[in-house]
């Protein structure tokens, strides 16, 4: 054992970056690490800011992957799409773990800076809304919180003009099991039953349509993690603020619990009863 200080440059490590790109330069760390600007003196406001900023970064990656997965599915390249969808599921696993850190903040901690938030709320996240639109939950009323930012409204409206990820999956499904030609005039219940019947055929004979079967399970896996994220959100909010209204004016826990009832890929869940 020796106490002689180790010099990495003796083994070739680069130690001088004057005029050369460094790790911090590549990642833009100066901008990222100075983006936390608490509005109060409360110790826990830094936790609150970083929790939400990192969540937005993970959502940015999720949008990147979902866009690519949808494009791959539209061209019939399912296997690359499977990897991307698996990655999105892992992203939501990361987002789920982040709630564990935020839950170290007690109600007393939060009250020390909650007033500084004004009307700002995660309810207003345009990236979260974009993810919902991409997955198929397309409530156009949710464009209104972004009316003050026309470029964000355009971004969301452009997404609404595209088929959702689930629409693209159903197109692939119907190439194997065509839906009735008059289904556009049928009731929502009839359309739901017809789609579920197509998925049921895939699940009853997975070896014949293995890629569709795997696609279905990737979608279920993704929604599973997404539901967990929503549930953990509800639990965290209830633990920290109880049943107070949210800073953005929603009912808080009551609003979030209503969101738990939203199904992204309903037929894939309901067919399990029919198998």
CATH level-3 fold name of the domain at 42-121 and 163-274: Methane Monooxygenase Hydroxylase, Chain G, domain 1
Query: Sheet with the most strands?
Result: none
Helix count?
A: 12
**Which structural class matches the secondary elements?**
mainly alpha
Average pLDDT figure? 90
CATH class of the domain at 42-121 and 163-274 equals Mainly Alpha
Overall strand count: 0
Integer-rounded radius of gyration: 23 Å
User: So, CATH architecture of the domain at 42-121 and 163-274?
Assistant: Up-down Bundle
Strand content: under 5%
Distance between the termini: 66 Å
Structure at a glance:
Helices cover about 60% and strands about 0% of the residues.
């Amino acid at each position: 054992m020796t106490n002689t200080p180790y010099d990495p440059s003796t083994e070739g490590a680069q130690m001088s970056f004057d005029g050369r790109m460094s790790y911090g330069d590549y990642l833009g760390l100066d901008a990222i690490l100075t983006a936390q600007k608490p509005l109060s003196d409360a110790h826990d406001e830094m936790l609150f800011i970083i929790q939400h900023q990192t969540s937005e970064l993970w959502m940015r990656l999720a949008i990147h992957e979902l866009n690519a997965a949808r494009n791959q599915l539209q061209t019939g390249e399912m296997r690359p799409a499977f990897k991307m969808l698996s990655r999105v599921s892992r992203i939501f696993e990361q987002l789920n773990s982040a709630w564990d850190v935020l839950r170290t903040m007690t109600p007393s901690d939060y009250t020390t800076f909650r007033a500084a938030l004004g009307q700002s709320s995660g309810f207003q996240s345009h990236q979260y809304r974009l993810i919902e639109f991409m997955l198929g939950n397309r409530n156009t009323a949710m464009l209104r919180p972004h009316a003050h930012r026309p470029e964000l409204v355009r971004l969301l409206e452009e997404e609404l003009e595209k088929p959702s990820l689930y629409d693209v999956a159903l197109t692939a499904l119907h190439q194997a099991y065509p839906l009735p030609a008059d289904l556009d005039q049928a009731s929502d219940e009839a359309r739901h039953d017809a789609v579920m019947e197509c998925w049921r055929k895939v699940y009853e004979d997975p070896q014949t349509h293995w890629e569709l079967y795997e696609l279905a399970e990737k979608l279920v896996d993704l929604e599973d993690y997404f539901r967990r994220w929503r549930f953990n959100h509800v639990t965290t909010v209830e633990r920290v603020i109880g049943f107070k209204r949210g800073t953005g004016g929603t009912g808080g826990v009551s609003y979030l619990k209503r969101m738990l009832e939203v199904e992204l890929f309903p037929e894939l869940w309901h067919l399990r009863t029919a198998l």
